[in-house]
Amino acid sequence: MLKLLYILNKMKLLSPLTLLRLTAAVYRHGINLMTLLNFSARMYGEKLALVGEGESLTYQQLYTQAEQLCAVLQKRYQLTRGKKAGLACSNHASLVRAIFAVSSSGADVYLLPAKTSEGQFQRLLQKHDFDLLVCDEEQSHWLGDFPSGKMLLSYHETLPAINSLCFERANEKTKLQRMSAGKLVLLTGGTTGGAKEARHKPSLFHYLDPFFAFLTRLNILPCHTAYIATPIYHGYGVAVLLLFMALGKKVVVQQRFEPVQACRLIREHQVEVVTVVPLMLHKMLRTNAADLKSLACIASGGAELNPKLVKETAEKLGAVLYNLYGTSEAGLNIIATPQDLRYSARTIGRKIDGVRIKIVDEHNKEVAVGQPGQLCIQNKWSMKNRSKAWIETGDVGYRDEKSYYFLCGRTDSMIVSAGVNVYPLEVEQILLTHPHVEDAVVIGVPDEWYGQRLQAYILLAPQAEVTTEEMFAWLRPRLARNQQPKEILFVDRLPYTHLGKVDRKMLLRNGINWGRESNGSFRRC
User: Does the pLDDT at position 49 exceed 70?
Assistant: First the structure.
């Protein structure tokens, strides 16, 4: 209760008038995401809420359009409690409208990956029996036998689409039935049809702790504008969207991340908060670091931070980089502040309030401080909060004596070399400290004598030259014997997923042939 009072006080929501507005929003819509938007419209009215490509909406405009869209979805598409709506869209205003409208209808909101292949998209449709599918025009060509009457485009000039339906019956008084929100469902695998569902039930009280952590550790209350560069369909993106909508801030989005355009948007809108994966930050710093001077909070998540990127950001922009650790199933759990990253550029930080973490071995027994094991998490806002079950993250890490957490890799990436557990991520992090290494990824390969050995793919910095012998000589005193790579491949580029992570699965499938198949090149050591 004290945290709730603190948050309401910081948001200036403890006056009788604001409490009346909140009560009115709940009375009109019930408990769903539209309630949040209705309250924000009452509080912030004509303040700019959302800026997209060719669109700028105030809070009142966004609310009016989302409410109208909900009425159309209920009447024309029979979307209501117990139904399922899949949203496969890039970051744009129509996706934001649809999220609020579907939640208000009582249906479950499935946030689907917009960046995927045709085969993966069709497998998603086969697995999930959606009552409504909203997608961008580029995905519409992949629908196959999906019923046209259950499909909506995000934008279109003539066909039924979100951008036109939100204006239908605009002159009539909209009457919506109060609904409890359906579930907000994230897909943990991101791009594969076999991805697991992470189901979350929106709840103000369950999310107080991560909300409180955002306000206090990231100090975002004084900020006015946020740019969501990460996909909204990722849990990280939609969480920041809802947080800033609750605070009455301006949110900037763009359909595709392009570093030149991203830098321009940050400069033009004087963005103070940006959500990124490390690769996005790396590209923006290389493009135009001067455009990023307005940033007070760079919230990085989704992939491991390169220690050199931490140093470069601090040198060029100051103490503005935060490292966030969470999962689709368990939500946000650990935050590293700029001060924490000065303690160690490799830490993911300290856990936030309301989180319990245990680190266990393969027999599910807790390990000692400093020893690696699988991170298991329990909190109120996870997908399993009702049963209070521990969630196995699949991440291997350890906690030091000062309660800082560190990652060693994934449970499925660990190899056993001559009977010793070896984590490729630890070797990658050493490689990334080499002054001439731009990026690196390490995988396990079969070995006749050791069972498994490591193979390293190294992308050198522009104009850098390093010989095989020099790299092995540099690694030798820094790694244990079982960590030494069997082979090193210098590549012209590395494969990345749409979320900015190195695509290890592609390397594991194709091995040294990846360079040839992607028109890249390599030197085998």
Answer: yes
- Residue 359: Cβ-neighbour burial (10 angstroms; 0-12, 13-18, 19+): buried
**What residue spans in the chain does CATH classification 3.30.300.30 cover?**
415-524
Closest CA to 90 of 253, 200, 241, 249: 253
pLDDT exceeds cutoff 80 at 491: yes
Nearest CA-CA partner of 182 in 155, 204, 203, 166: 203
Q: How far apart are CA 483 and CA 428, in angstroms?
A: 10
- Residue 388: band (very low, low, confident or very high) from pLDDT cuts 50, 70, 90: low
Beta strands of 269-390 (E only): which ranges? 273-276, 297-300, 321-327, 331-336, 347-351, 356-360, 373-378
> Are the beta carbons of 391 and 327 closer than 8 angstroms?
yes
What is the reported pLDDT for 126? 84
CATH architecture, domain 208-410: 3-Layer(aba) Sandwich (3.40)
Q: Which helix (H) or strand (E) holds 66?
A: helix 59-76
Asked if the 415-524 domain carries CATH number 3.30.300.30, the reply is: yes
Segment 189-198 mean pLDDT: 54
Collect all residues with Cβ–Cβ distance below 8 Å to 349 and sequence separation of at least 6.
323, 325, 334, 335, 336, 337, 340, 404, 405
Please list the alpha-helical segments (H only) found in 220-347. 235-247, 259-268, 278-288, 307-317, 338-343
Query: Bridge partners of 274?
Result: 227, 298
- pLDDT at residue number 34: 81
**CATH node for 60-200:** 3.40.50.980
Tokens of 137: 């025009």
Query: Dmax of the chain from CA atoms?
Result: 77
Contacts of residue 92, defined as CB under 8 A and 6 or more positions apart, other chains included, come to 52, 53, 55, 154, 155, 253, 255
81, 14 contact by CB (below 8 A): no
Give the strand pairing for 321-327 and 108-111.
unpaired
Q: Report the distance separating Cα 244 and Cα 234, nearest Å.
A: 16
Say whether pLDDT at 15 is over 80.
Answer: no
Q: Where in the chain is the domain with CATH 3.40.50.12780?
A: 208-410
Q: How far is CA 417 from the centre of its chain?
A: 33
Burial of 469 (0-12, 13-18, 19+ CB in 10 A): exposed
Is the CB of residue 307 less than 8 Å from the CB of residue 437? no
The whole model's pTM is what? 0.86
Region(s) of the chain under CATH 3.40.50.980: 60-200
